[in-house]
Specification:
It is a single chain. The protein is mainly α. The chain has a two-stranded antiparallel sheet with strand order 1-2. A hairpin with a 2-residue loop joins β1 and β2. It is elongated, with a radius of gyration of 29 Å. Helices cover 65% and strands 1% of the residues.
Length: 310
């Protein structure tokens, strides 16, 4: 809908919401996710409420420019609470357009970002949140704006097959929340999401590595599993990655590397099924899990023994 089209709609929408207000049908509305304490739009008493006046059972309509910032903001809240996220974002945008330097404009901007996110318009949400950070970097809601910005990336990486660039961007944005606003509730949530996103990257490497392994492309598979072991060792995928290394190195006849991978696996994850499978593979060839040779795995094992790994 164009800006002019939305402004034309305002004649009807604001008047109708006023009718609901005057008739007691416009219940108490909070302030979205921020809880900033707005009052009920239906508390203005008889005579038509915030948005209109009554004359012989007719609603007096007027241009959107004649409504206050608070009135337009509350219309946005109304649509937001009724899951009309696109319209809510537009009303909040009207507050910013008509009252650009007001407190309501600031509140409208952050709520506009929230409404865009709820409507899965992630790029718009990200852009709006960034605008809030540019305009109000020291505001108390800056942490929430940065969190929304991070979510605009994070909520698009739920499928392993998606572009991993989004995952890296999510990690970077989540790290900003954690480091810049460490004492907020958003930082605590960001830590959890950061770990999940990190695990997601490891899952992608494992998926590709297993693909190569099944097709006997052992060097390519080893490269992927090595990334998991070296860069994502704190994730849940590390035990399997070490086992797959045992499989791949044995297939190539590189016994020392396979033994060392098994030794690392046994040192850290001895109670897992992955170690049991690796131990079975090694002993079937007369080998034992032990660090030997001078490969990258042997170096990793020495670091582990010194307590510098994990």
């Amino acid at each position: 809908m164009t800006r002019n089209g939305f402004a034309t709609k305002a004649f009807v929408s604001l008047a109708v919401i006023g009718l609901l207000s005057g008739c007691g049908g416009f219940g108490s509305i909070g302030s979205g996710s921020l809880g900033s304490g707005s009052s009920s739009a239906g508390n203005s008493g008889g005579g038509g409420g915030f948005f209109s006046s009554f004359r012989s059972n007719r609603v007096e309509r007027k241009p959107i420019e004649e409504y206050t910032a608070e009135e337009i903001y509350k219309r946005g809240e109304y649509d937001l609470n009724n899951n009309e996220f696109e319209d809510a974002a537009k009303w909040f945008g009207e507050v910013e357009r008509l009252y650009p330097y007001s407190e309501w404009a600031k509140r409208g901007l952050i709520m506009q970002a929230f409404a865009h996110h709820k409507n899965r318009e992630y790029e718009l949400s990200r852009a709006t949140a960034q605008r809030f950070l540019d305009f109000y970097p020291a505001d108390e809601d800056a942490a929430y704006a940065q969190y929304l910005l991070a979510l605009s990336y994070y909520d698009q990486i739920d499928e392993i097959g998606r572009d991993q660039g989004l995952t890296f961007q999510a990690l970077q944005a989540l790290r900003v929340v954690i480091e810049r606003y460490p004492d907020t509730e958003y930082a605590r949530s960001a830590v959890l999401k950061f770990d999940l996103a990190f695990n997601h990257l490891a899952a992608k490497e494992m998926e590709i590595g297993r693909y190569y392994l099944k097709r006997n492309h052992y060097p390519a598979a080893i490269n992927r599993f090595r990334v998991v072991v070296e860069q994502f060792q704190t994730t849940t995928h590390t035990p399997e990655a070490l086992h797959r290394l045992v499989e791949a190195y044995l297939a190539l006849g590189l016994d020392a590397e396979a033994q060392t991978a098994g030794a690392i696996l046994g040192h850290n994850f001895q109670s897992t099924e992955w170690y049991e499978d690796s131990y079975r593979l090694l002993t079937a060839k007369g080998l034992e899990p032990e660090a030997t040779g001078d490969s990258w795995l042997a170096t990793l094992y020495r670091q582990l023994v010194r307590g510098e790994w994990l």
